[in-house]
Amino acid sequence: MADKTPEPKVMDPVYVNAVQSHFEVVNAYWERTTPTFIVKTRGKGYRQHLMKPAFKALADELRGHGYLPRIRWIIDNYHLSILERKAGGEENYLRNKLLFAATVLTVMLDGYLRSNNPILTQELMIGVPVIVNALIFTFGILIIFGVHEYGHRYMAIKRGIDTSQPYFIPAPPGMGGTLGAVISQREPPVNRDALYDLGLSGPIAGFVMTTLVGILGISLSFVVSNAQATRWMIEYPSIRFQIMPLPLILEMIATVLKPTLETEVLIMHPVAFAAWVGCIVTFINLIPAWQLDGGHIIRAFVGRESHKIISAAGVILLVISGYMFMGVVVAFFMMKAGGESIEPLDDISPLSPSRRLGLILYVTVMLLSLVALLPI
Fold it and tell me: What CATH code is carried by the domain that includes residue 73?
């Protein structure tokens, strides 16, 4: 019996023509089952500064045909591979809705317990139903987390990246009744610029909303004398006033709206606590480690290898800031396979100069939202 010769693989003219229209093709081959091209930018030499726009244009063209390109530098050549883009299909939002409903309930319970204390109900806010403060608190918490995630989603849509709707995560009362929200990213960003934008968009949007909620919360808060606070602690033995380290942004707001003397104390309204939680979330997300938003930002800035080193420094920053548990969690996932930040399809082209300047904004927001649970 004669041996059957395997049929030669044929490349799809769709991506062949697209690659040829944006690059000068030196050679084409199959890397196992992946069609791959050795390419140059148009003109003499490699002209790396032309690589980013050419590759982005190719990615935008191929995305609609069900393909995604990926480029690497291997032995003095650009190797451009063509990957199949998984069809998104129709998304079922049932899980998102159930998790959101559960989160509303846990946040409202947290807000109710936080609002139902005699200092507020019998001294400072007589006649205001507890449920009113609980509802305002719930709105404040959910809008901070929601705006954060939809900041990511907006940027993902703008960059043509397929992502899910946010998944809200309920939690027992104590730290706001929720662990936040996440979105699922189904494909990598095109280049480092897109990765940077994706990482920064959520924290910036969330920080702006946290500031607005903070203005509302501080304006609803109360300034009382230390002597009055001491009398209330004697009169209501179940209540203990706790000194909370305020992030710089809330300190600035309080200085303008509710200035206090050395003999006075600021009693935070539950909505102000919602902003306080929002600052913690913003700060943690901006830590330059693992797959946190700050990890994506720094990964886009310094590349893969340096990102690993900076991630270790980010874990140390978490620990010395008082977030020991979070530091352990991040360190654990960093050690697992696949625990690195997202690798863009074009990891060769550097971050644009304007985004390098944007690191000033990144550091500024991180410092403004820092809530140090331990002295640093």
Answer: 3.30.1360
Residue 82 C-alpha from the chain's centroid:
29
C-alpha to C-alpha distance for 300 and 344, rounded to whole angstroms: 9
Gap between the Cα atoms of 108 and 299, Å rounded: 37
Supply the pLDDT for residue 7: 56
* In contact, 62 and 89? CB cutoff 8 Å: no
Show Cβ contacts of residue 60 under 8 Å, excluding neighbours closer than 6 positions.
160
| Residue 265 bridge partners (DSSP) | 224
Strands (E) located in 41-117: 67-74, 77-84
Show the domain range for 30.
13-84
pLDDT in tens, 244-270: 899 999 999 999 999 999 999 999 999
Rounded distance, CA 244 to CA 33, Å? 58
Are residue 99 and residue 44 in the same domain, yes or no? no
Gap between the Cα atoms of 376 and 362, Å rounded: 20
Do 75 and 196 belong to one domain? no
pLDDT of residue 252: 97
User: What is the count of structural domains for the chain?
Assistant: 2
Eight-state DSSP code of residue 69 = E
Burial code of 242-271, b = ≥16 C-beta within 10 A, e = fewer?
eeeebbebbeebbeebbeeeeebbbbbbbb
pLDDT for position 1? 46
Do 59 and 143 have their domain in common?
no
- Alpha carbons within 13 angstroms on the beta-carbon side of residue 123 total 19
In a domain, 34, yes or no: yes
Residue 375 in domain = no
Q: Which amino acid is at 259?
A: P
**Are residues 45 and 99 both part of a single domain?**
no
Examine residue 8 and state whether it is found in any structural domain, yes or no: no
Q: If we measure between CA atoms, which residue out of 307, 306, 305 comes closest to residue 296?
A: 307
- 166 part of a folded domain: yes
Helix 94-115 / helix 130-158 crossing angle, nearest 10 deg: 140
Contacts of 179 (CB under 8 A, 6+ apart): 169, 170, 171
